[in-house]
Specification:
Layout (H helix, E strand, L loop, with lengths): L1 E6 L2 E4 L4 E9 L4 E9 L6 E7 L4 E3 L7 E6 L4 E6 L8 E9 L3 E4 L3 E6 L1
Parallel strand pairs: 2-11
Antiparallel strand pairs: 1-3, 3-8, 4-5, 4-9, 5-6, 7-8, 9-10, 9-11
């Protein structure tokens, strides 16, 4: 089992920054990929960014150059630094890990609201 606890969401003006954190506990050695997804009202959940165990990163086109995903192995935490935020970034952001032989695990979600 894996447990994910997110923090760092909130309200910010357009052009501002936020950093999301996701503390991961459980069977960490079997985690293949860590990532962030988001879901806006009326939309499907979409990938924002992922980072592999080899630190390969992948970003949605809409956030490239603005968002940075990283991880701190000592703290078992994955981060999403969000810069130059836009109103269209408003969504509930979910932390995700993919575990070998076990599947996907999700955090509870954290609201990010960007005002214009």
């Amino acid at each position: 089992q894996v447990q994910l606890v997110e923090s760092g969401g909130g309200l910010v003006q357009a052009g501002g920054s936020l950093r999301l954190s996701c503390a991961v506990s459980g069977i960490i050695s079997r985690i293949k990929t860590r990532g962030w997804y988001r879901q806006a009202p009326g939309n499907q959940r979409e990938l924002v960014a992922t980072i592999s165990t080899g630190d390969n990163t992948n970003y949605a086109d809409s956030v490239k150059g603005r968002f940075i995903i990283s991880r701190d192995n000592a703290k078992n935490t994955v981060y999403l630094q969000m810069n130059s935020l836009k109103p269209e970034d408003t969504a509930v952001y979910y932390c995700n890990v993919k575990v070998v032989l076990s599947g996907d695990y999700w955090g509870q979600g954290t609201q990010v609201t960007v005002s214009s």
